[in-house]
Amino acid sequence: MVLSESAVAPYAGLAGLDPAFTTSLANKVEIMQSYTVLNRVIAKLGLTDWSLAYLSDQFTIEPIKGTSSIRVKAQASSAKQAETTANAVVSEGIDLLKEIRLKEVQNARNFITNQLEMVSNTLSELHSQSIGTVSAIEQKELDREIAVNEELYIILSQKRLEMQVLESKRLDDVEWLQQAVASEKPIKPNKALNIIIAAFLAFFAGVFWVFLEQAWANRRQTGAISS
Question: Rounded to two decimals, what is the model's pTM?
Fold first, then answer.
């Protein structure tokens, strides 16, 4: 069994981005090992004879201690298969993270657009009321409401522009830090460990056999004396 590993890190281009549109490290790990990613890996690599549970057992995804990066390890019967699996998991995981983030940005943009339409309608109504005959106190209140809604309209317009910029850039949540490279050094079977275990077993088996022979000899000797 051969092990291969890859690593990803948060995309530098997301620095300063509203935290609402970035994904936490723990969530990235959960998403990258989700069944959605596994199904995509199976389809991409043509692993039609692999079940989701089997593929899930062939790799691990974990945060790298002391960093904001993620390590992906895959094992397989061949070095090339381990490399391909690790890279496919990362690739499909990044794509899914991108899709989720893009969907969140689009939903935010749609929500802001709806709010803008509501504020615009409110402003139209307020301006209509302002044209009619109103008292000085009512006019003052209308002016205040118009000013508040105009300020809100400006803020929402800026937010919608931000969402449109994010949507057009389609920045990834993460980027490749290091792609997996095939390693010819197997992790299973561990020959050195197997040799040590075999040596211990042989030693204890020999000691047990000596004790067994001695006990049998003593028993025969005791029987001969009794006779």
Answer: 0.65
Q: Which residues are CB-neighbours of 14 under 8 A, at least 6 positions away?
A: 22, 171, 173
- Domain ranges in the chain are 2-178, 190-221
**What is the second-level CATH architecture of the domain 2-178?**
2-Layer Sandwich (3.30)
Tokens 């937010």 found at: 159
pLDDT digits 0-9 by tens, 126-172: 988 877 767 888 888 989 999 999 999 999 999 999 888 888 776 55
> How many other CB atoms are there within 10 angstroms of residue 118's CB atom?
13
Kindly provide the b/e burial profile for residues 127-164, where b requires at least 16 CB atoms within 10 angstroms of the residue's own CB.
Answer: eeeeeeeeeeeeeeebeebbeebeebbeebeebbebbe
Burial of 37 (0-12, 13-18, 19+ CB in 10 A): buried
Contact by Cβ (8 Å): 63, 27: no
